[in-house]
Amino acid sequence: LGGQINELGAGPLRKIPEDAKEELKKIFEVTGGTDFFNKIEEHSKKKAADMGLQFSDEGIDNEYFIDVYTANSGKHTT
């Protein structure tokens, strides 16, 4: 199909050039996206501690992430 796996070129699995990643990083910095993400992480750590759940700075294999994405308290409305 002509896709590039972890190589420069076209396709969803291509290697993203460093200058493109830097540009995206700058956009998030200027628009406040980085600060917003960091604030979410800060409050998530506090909430995990309040709930007595393990929290990891990297990855999704931790108790807090699993609880947030799988638990249904029945208190939310649509």
Description:
The chain is an all-alpha fold and 78 residues long. It has 2 domains: 1-31, no CATH class; 37-78, no CATH class. The protein is built from 3 helices and no strands. It has helices spanning 18-31, 33-51, 63-70. The termini are far apart. The mean pLDDT is 89.
Give the fraction of residues assigned to helices: 40-55%
Shape: elongated
* Helix/strand structural class: mainly alpha
Please outline the major beta sheet.
none
Tally of domains: 2
Radius of gyration: 18 Å
> What oligomeric state is this?
single chain
Spans of at least 5 consecutive residues with low confidence: none
Question: How far from one another are the termini?
Answer: 41 Å
Order of helices and strands: HHH
Count of distinct strands? 0
Architecture blueprint of SSEs:
Elements: H1 18-31, H2 33-51, H3 63-70
Quick overview of this protein structure:
With 78 residues, this protein is mainly α. 53% of the residues lie in helices and 0% in strands.
Summary tags:
single chain, 78 residues, mainly alpha, 3 helices, 0% strand
